[in-house]
From TrEMBL:
Residues covered by region (Disordered): 1-54, 219-240
Biased amino acid composition, Basic and acidic residues: 231-240
Organism (species): Amycolatopsis iheyensis
Pfam families in the cross-refs: NYN_YacP
Record PANTHER family: YACP-LIKE NYN DOMAIN PROTEIN
InterPro entries in UniProt: YacP-like (IPR010298)
Protein name: NYN domain-containing protein
């Protein structure tokens, strides 16, 4: 027999005793020939569309029969499948068995006959198992096979939907548990912050008390020194050694008081940081506060000198409207020597417009090589100047971000849809007022905007010249 595509040829013999209706010769339309064919068995074209459970059931029954059938009833392409182990026959040869059942009426009839003799339960379309009933109806070619197949497909879809619902409910319960755990951890963190704040406040109070005691001792020492000086003037040369000893003791007391005062100031600063961290609970605020305290600490000496001269509070001239000091505008850095002076300032922050500098200094390199060269040069500059260095690159088009960078350089890539210029402006705006900042860029718009934020712009060529000396 030579099968045509999708529709098998008519068998030459007529099967009667098997109980399977014989296939009549094709009849013209309107005479009932096609209808009789459809009632006898399903069209082969519908077999690939059967639900997976029905296909597996039919493949299992065909696999059980193919090994027991005579060789003349087994199509040539199924003879290797018949030699498979029973456990693997339906799994590995299922597709070939289904294709042969749809194409060869002789093979299908032989399988049905074998099942009638050895697996009578397999051909009962009225069993309670919907999959087994659908498989039997398809094999026997009953008119209600399509409805049974649709029922199996619907049950399979409902089972899949129920499984998805159960999985979603399980995920929701897991997320609820995780949320509860996060809330517990947050409450513990807040309690720990409150405890730390209380401890810091207690330490500050103790240090202030000790400072007051040291002040009393200092005044007493001064009085003793004055008394000793008066006695020395009235006394003889023998009292000179005693006066010198008292003077040395006074110096030591002053040094100790200064040390205690600095320690108290540091403790007060630490307490301020702890209180701010507990209130805000945000890492960004902690970083900005730490930078602000470092900047204030670097200017403490100058401020103390000014306060010692009595310049406290605002003066009438400071309250005049219509004029400003211009200290909020950063000056432009036009040469390398000026750049070196700014980089020598305490706690200075150097912000670099990455690609603007690399395309000025070495545009012939690939972008990845430009980034690596600039980052390593900035690392060497940071090591020599102790400046905080941040370099910003456009993140668009970056395929690989370096896993690690040299020490001393913060490397940032702008997010999708965000320009590196905006990131630089945000960095300048995030710094506390009064901190020295240098922005290396040749972009005039960026330079003008960061100058208004108190930063000092410098052209990319000036930074490239400075990096060539590192």
């Amino acid at each position: 027999m030579q099968p045509q595509p999708l529709v098998p040829e008519q068998p030459e013999d007529h099967t009667g005793p098997s109980g399977v209706a014989p296939r009549p010769e094709a009849a013209p339309a309107g005479e009932g020939g096609a209808g009789a064919e459809d009632g006898a068995r399903p069209e082969p074209a519908t077999w690939p569309g059967l639900p997976e459970p029905v296909r597996d059931r039919i493949a299992e029954l065909a696999a059980a029969a193919v090994a027991k059938l005579p060789g003349t009833d087994v199509p040539r392409q199924l003879r290797p499948v018949a030699k498979f182990a029973p456990a693997k026959r339906a799994k590995l040869g299922g597709a070939a068995l289904l294709a042969a059942l749809g194409e060869s009426s002789q093979f299908r009839t032989a399988v049905i006959e074998w099942l009638r003799e050895h697996r009578t339960d397999a051909l009962d379309p009225n069993v309670t198992d919907s999959v087994a009933a659908a498989a039997a109806a398809v094999l026997l070619g009953e008119s209600g096979a399509a409805g049974r197949v649709r029922l199996v497909a619907k049950n399979a879809e409902e089972n899949a939907l129920r499984a998805e619902r159960d999985a979603a409910l399980a995920r929701a319960q897991r997320l609820d548990a995780e949320l509860a755990q996060v809330r517990v951890e947050l409450a513990e963190a807040r309690q720990a912050a409150e405890n730390a704040r209380g401890e810091r406040e207690g330490e500050v109070e103790k240090l202030l008390k000790r400072l007051r005691e040291q002040g009393v001792q200092l005044r007493q020492a001064k009085d003793a020194a004055q008394t000793a000086s008066t006695e020395a003037e009235r006394g003889s040369a023998a009292r000179a050694d005693e006066i010198a000893a008292l003077t040395a003791q006074l110096d030591r007391e002053r040094q100790r008081v200064a040390t205690e005062r600095a320690r108290a100031e540091r403790a007060a600063a630490d307490a301020d940081i702890a209180r701010q961290s507990a209130r805000e609970a945000r890492e960004a605020d902690e970083v900005r506060l730490a930078l602000l305290i470092d900047t204030i600490d670097g200017a403490v000496t100058g401020l103390r000198r000014e306060l010692a001269l009595g310049a406290r509070g605002a003066r009438p001239a400071d309250m005049v409207r219509g004029a400003s000091t211009g200290t909020g505008q950063g000056g432009k850095i036009a040469d390398v020597s000026t750049l070196d002076r700014y980089l020598a300032l305490p706690n200075v922050h150097l912000i670099v417009d990455g690609y603007n500098v690399t395309k000025t200094g070495y545009p012939e390199l690939a972008l990845a090589d430009q980034r690596d060269r600039l980052i390593h040069q900035l690392s060497a500059l940071a090591a020599r100047t102790s400046a905080e260095v941040t370099v910003v690159f456009d993140g668009a088009g970056v395929l690989s971000v370096p896993a690690s960078v040299p020490r001393g350089v913060r490397v940032l890539f702008s997010d999708r849809g965000v320009l590196a210029d905006d990131v630089i402006r945000n960095l300048v705006a995030a710094e506390p007022a009064g901190r020295p900042m240098v922005v290396a860029t040749s972009d005039r718009a960026v330079a003008d905007s960061v100058r208004g934020g108190g930063a000092h712009p410098t052209p990319s060529a000036v930074l490239v010249s400075r990096l060539s000396r590192v």
